[in-house]
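Quick one, T. Sequence first:
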Amino acid sequence: MQRKKLTKSLAPNEWRILKNRMLNWSTQFSILLFLDTNNYPHSHSRYECLIGVGNSSLVPVSESIDGLNILAKQHHQNPDWLFGHICYELKDQLNSKTKSTKIQRHNYPLAHFFSPHTVCYINNTKSLLCIESFDDPQNILIEILESSESLSTQQQKIQFYQRTDQDQYIQTVSKLREHIAAGDCYEINYCCEGYAENVNIDPVSAYTSLTTLSSAPFAAYYRLGEQYMMSASPERYLVKSGSQIVAQPMKGTIKRGNDKIEDEQAKNALRNSIKEQAENVMIVDLMRNDLARSCKVGSIKVDELFGIYSFPQVHQMISSISGILKEDFTISDILRYSFPMGSMTGAPKIKVMELIETYENFRRQLFSGSVGYISPDGNCDFNVIIRSLFYNRVTQYLSYATGGAITFDSDPLNEWEEMRLKAASLERIFAFH
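Structure tokens:
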């Protein structure tokens, strides 16, 4: 049985309201993934927004090293849409030297992909809506058009608590600098958790509040049963288009200025920062090495180094690395050899993952993992899950995590302030005014 397909031409700016209707329509489903580029002119993106809802079949990735290979084999045999996630702790199945032991406060599977019952998308030129479904697409279009065009951003006031206080954070960064001085590693991504317990939130309202204040090109709203993720991620993990693979690690952050002059000064300060360049280039080298394991010899290129991109609260330094996939290699090989992404670990990867387990006091789970899609033609796009909220409706546990890259030149207090700047963009949608 194949999906039936419907396309609808869109008038200029019709996509804005239509996207809201699509999101509101999707909330009736217990499994869904909504991906939104938020009108950023980002290279390689095929869609302005893309949503998969319901499940025609679940494609669980077993908690073993063979799980990704099984996923790729199933997709090859039945080329269809797949949407899903990969948790950070899948690293333990890909690397025998690492093991996560922290408490699991959310219930996301290590990895989970589903073949949606219905797929809807607005193309990247924002001129066309497409609906692919096992049901009548015309009926679905009617349901979408009858859905509300307004999105609620009403939130209850919530007090977040920090699992790591400022003194603990500064002490830990000092210890990590000692590891760097001893030659154990060059750079390590150290993160902290903020959380609230016994809270009852409306996840879709939280998502719209978050993305209204922090619009981002790799935003995602994800529901898997009673587990929710609301993400305003500005970072792509990797994208596959034909045989080309592109990774875009983000490393280097500075706060936006209060006016145009201050803002331009901030951008120049980030662009010319030796420390931020050092952080970025280490991850670029790591990603070049990771991609080289699944790409043809000589095909790896750095397409952009130290690009400066602006977001509502911060400017970010982003680089792009590309390669051509080896013959007979699949998306599972790319993920196997490059996950977790270097921007969320550091270098060398195995050692810093061991240090992360030693010094962080929470289990990352979806944070610093990825959500994304694989299309029927074998292309894919996956984000890096940062600037995100995680909510368990059953336990009423709400959390987020933020952090940054620690190098020997890191100032512990400055790193704390950068980490809290990122956290503020998540906390403020629930803030007491």
